[in-house]
Amino acid sequence: MKDERFERLRTARLWLIDLDGTLIRGGQALPGADVLIQTLRRAERNFLILTNNATRTPRAIARDLSHLGLDIEEDEVYTSPQALVDVLVRERPSASVLAIGEEGLLEPLKRKGFRLVEDWREADTVCVGLDRSLCYDALARAALALQHGAQFYATNVDLRLPVEDGFHPGNGSIVRLLEGVSGKAAEVIGKPRPAMLQAALARFGASPDDALMLGDSLETDIPAASEIGMLGVLVRTGVSAAVKEGEIRAHTPLLFDDLPALLAYLGD
């Protein structure tokens, strides 16, 4: 029986591509990453590079990728803060936002014209992204705003971030604290929730049947795609390098050892 997933791989008009572990790892471009981008451009396929990273702007990410030999434009990078702001534009276009976050979150909020406030009494929306200089006062103000009815949005809920000597707290640690204090659950935008993928689809007027999610994680990339019926394509180049076959089948993604293997299939 013909596997329809392979036909969807060949015909997908929008590729959503995870960044860390899929295109880059350890500050270096992974083998085949540059060729994949060139192949998609030649085939005139739309693509977006997706990342849960909430601290950096697409401009900064694209600049760093260019230094690694990857020809990526700023508007081809899509971060979880960008997706959050796109959701806000649809759901709460006149929101007064109390934001916890760095430039990666603050810049798109400002660009879309949202009113940023510091007084919790003026906030009807709280947006939380990772802030590595976070202070207690900011947490207290966000908690009070939530307790008094503000809506709660989070870029992502990664609990911890790997560093050389172990782990640092991720944005999920901040979100959990505020959820515990306020009793209010955040609307999470980044992977593994599907909202980021849905926002990316909306940018191109595409449906899940028209697109695929290429990533290295069975915990974030593939579940997000699976939840909305999008094809997931897993490469064993990042966090899922040692995953068991049974775990892979549970989400029914297509599986390739690495990007050169994927490219070899596309070239057949």
Explain what the structure shows.
The chain has 2 domains: 4-52 and 192-267, HAD superfamily/HAD-like (Rossmann fold); 81-188, HAD superfamily/HAD-like (Rossmann fold, 3-Layer(aba) Sandwich). Helix content is 40%, strand content 21%. The protein is built from 11 helices and 15 strands. It has helices at 4-11, 33-42, 58-67, 80-91, 103-111, 136-147, 171-182, 195-204, 221-227, 245-251, 259-267; strands at 14-18, 24-25, 28-29, 46-51, 77-79, 96-100, 115-116, 125-128, 151-154, 160-163, 166-169, 187-188, 211-215, 231-235, 254-256. The protein has a 6-stranded parallel β-sheet with strand order 5-4-1-13-14-15, sandwiched between helices. Strands 7-6-8-9-12 form a 5-stranded parallel β-sheet, sandwiched between helices. Strands 2-3 form a two-stranded antiparallel sheet. The longest helix has 12 residues, at 80-91. The protein is globular, with a radius of gyration of 19 Å. The mean pLDDT is 93. This is Putative NagD-like phosphatase.
CATH class identity of the largest domain: Alpha Beta
Helix proportion of residues, in percent? 25-40%
Shape: globular
Give average pLDDT, whole number. 93
**Helix count from the secondary structure assignment:** 11
CATH architecture of the largest domain: 3-Layer(aba) Sandwich
C-alpha end-to-end distance: 19 Å
Sketch the major β-sheet.
Answer: 6 strands, parallel
| H-E string | HEEEHEHEHEHEEHEEEHEHEHEHEH
Percent of sequence in beta strands: 15-25%
What's the quaternary structure here? single chain
Strand order of the main beta sheet, please? Answer: 5-4-1-13-14-15
CATH homologous superfamily label of the largest domain:
HAD superfamily/HAD-like
Unreliable stretches? none
GO molecular function, one term: phosphatase activity
Protein name: Putative NagD-like phosphatase
Organism: Candidatus Carbonibacillus altaicus
